[in-house]
């Protein structure tokens, strides 16, 4: 099987809902990272064979195949197509998988994997309002027969994880505080500078809170009486975009490209849709089995911090070290712009492996419907 290499990886800063990026049209956010990726890699943009972009809430300014719209908005060649995909929060990690698979299959040589989401402009759940207006449900009769007419939500899933693994509010808040501390350290040390392309006057991730503390977190109300989950231990709603260039060995030679990493292993799994957020556990196990690597062979982990119990339970079940996980903070501190997060995490992982000299990195994230992707990359 042919190899797939990551040649370039770039992202915007991750903005808050009221920050500098809030008013930037998502097609323009996507266009910005696509143009920057082309410029940084020096690739002839007409040689790109497809642009695969993740975006979750494909309504309003994010509708109409935003991958194609973003590419054209960037002033890039009309001859290059684009496709927008939705695997919920893992959409742009799946974009990376599809791009790598196209190259590994030998049917393509240069593909861009990207993601974009402006949650300030198109809020999470906006599509649910449309469903309600139509007077229908997203659950068909077969679903109800199988799982019952119970509440299905990421918030309930996070609480169910707390109950199953025995995490109390204090456990979650300690984890959340560490996420902010790591993010602030990374920002102050300039660890993100090389991977970020400034946009709308912003050149730094906006979400990390320097003034937060366990005392402040303890003052917040739980999302529901009797629950452990508060806003402090959940990912932030955010704005951002990222893009990676995936190339074959032939493309490396033809276009004189220098790879940063090799896509080593790709997996995607389904898990319990009621718990919803547990997928990273079997996805990681599947990736390790396929790669024939052990958990201790992995130098760095990026596990999306949708909620604190997701990462805590994942580490408990896989035996992964939290010291090697989200070393520069995660979505609790830095934000989670849904369809963009997979590509953002991949960009962070590639650059951190380069910075530290590590060999293997593993990325995984929970996804709506009880799914998860896991990707292992190898620095070259």
TrEMBL record:
Belongs to the thiolase-like superfamily. Thiolase family. Residues 5-250 form the Thiolase N-terminal domain. InterPro entries: Thiolase (IPR002155), Thiolase-like (IPR016039), Thiolase_C (IPR020617), Thiolase_CS (IPR020613), Thiolase_N (IPR020616). One of its GO terms (molecular function) is acetyl-CoA C-acetyltransferase activity. Its EC number is 2.3.1.9. It holds the Pfam family Thiolase_C. This is Acetyl-CoA C-acetyltransferase. It is an enzyme of class 2 (transferase). PANTHER family: ACETYL-COA C-ACYLTRANSFERASE (PTHR43365:SF1), BLR7806 PROTEIN (PTHR43365). CDD domains: thiolase. It comes from the Bacteria. Keywords: Acyltransferase, Transferase. Residues 257-379 form the Thiolase C-terminal domain.
